Structure formats: C-alpha cells, structure tokens
Amino acid sequence: MQYLVFRLYGAMASWGEAAVGGDRPSATHPGRSAILGLLAAALGIKRTEQAKLNELYQSMQFAVKEYSAGVLVRDYHTVQVPSTDKKRVHRHRKSELAAPGYKLNTVLSSRDYRDDGVWLVAIWLTDSATVTLPELADALLKPRFTLYLGRKSCPLAAPLNPRVLDADCLQQALDSDVLPLLGSTEQDSIWLRYPRQSVYYWQGASELMQVSGATVQSRQLWDEPGDRIKWQFSSRIEHQLTVSRER
Questions:
Q1: How far apart are CA 202 and CA 236, in angstroms?
Q2: Whether the Cβ atoms of residue 43 and residue 144 lie closer than 8 Å to each other
Q3: Domain residue limits at 180
C-alpha cells in the first residue's frame, strides 16, 4: 500500500482541542482538522471553497507517530469578546460581531503551545479520493498558502520532507527512516528530549496497528471538519498505541 509521509517540527505548535471559556488547550499531537487544514493550504484551497474541502476530507485518512510531544508552554493574555445576549442565538463569531449594539468586554485568556515537538504524519487515500499522493507531496514542497502548525504564530522550523513510499502496513510506514533535524537521529533524541516511548495515533480500524504486549486505546474526538466558515466540527474515533523504544 502507498503512503505519503512527512515530518512536522516547529519551535512552537498548537493543536487545538475543545475550548471552554477563555482557555485554549493544545493536544499533544496534530488532529484530523489540523492535518486537513495543512494539506488544504498547500493545495491552495480557500476556506470558502466548501465543495473542494469536502472532496479533500473524503479523500484521505491519516495517522501520526509522536517522537516528542514537546514541552507545554502556556501564554496568558487578554482578549476582547462580545457581551452575552440570552435573547439571541449565534451559530458563529461572525454573526455575534454583526449583531446590532454589541459591546466588547476584556477577559483573561490562555493559549497552550507545544515547544520543540516532533511528529511524523502518514496519509493514505480512500476509494473516493479525488487527489493523488504525488500531488499532495508536490503541494507540500511548493505550498500555495503559508503553512503553520495549528496557529499562524507557529511557523514550520524545518522542511516537511514529504515522500511517497510503499509499505506492507501502517506501522512500517510510520517507522520509516526520517531525515534528522540535527546531525543524526541520536542527536535529535538527545537535544529534542525524545522519551523512551513512541506514541501512535490513527483513524479507521483499530486493527490497523497491533503490537504484541501493547494495548490499543480508543477515544472520541471532535475534530472532523464540517463547515469551515462557521467553524463547525463533528466527532470521530481515534486509536492510540504506546510502544517502548530503545535510545
């Protein structure tokens, strides 16, 4: 089976999770929304082009190998938000800001980031794919729009190094050799504080990855993109497997 694999690394990254109030937490790894947004930006698809976005969403599935989740960094700052109007229901922020007579209030907010995280992403196509893996790889090499790691303030700090490869299984694709960020893989492990475990995340069937002695865990996430203009998302199931590795 063919896979497209590429690496994500940045001094700062923020992989948004469900937000409550002024807190904006970050997951330890990129989710489906973040990966699809990255690929859409590389292909030059705008948020207003919902039909093209839907075709991309239905074309691919993905998995992530977490070399290092990085160090959690929390940024405290103030942000302005409109007053709550119990008589009116707003489905998105644009509607809220367009309401007549709205008033801005200043509240304390926090943003979480991952410092020096390293992830390898594997993409494979579905039967309804309208794009090819080589096309996606070319787009990542020459993106139409600027790519970033979750937030515009989190640029890439190393080339993505995308490549299309043949592998017998998903784990073989995720365990393929990665171009070192520093002089060698050993230096990467030391300076970027790789833990003694690698964590795999994937969607689809839980049987896609099986390691003797390791237990697959599954959970529900709300990062399946819907309407990008209204920032609507639906749920999906993500599987996780933690495997010990040698230094």
A1: 11
A2: yes
A3: 2-72+115-244
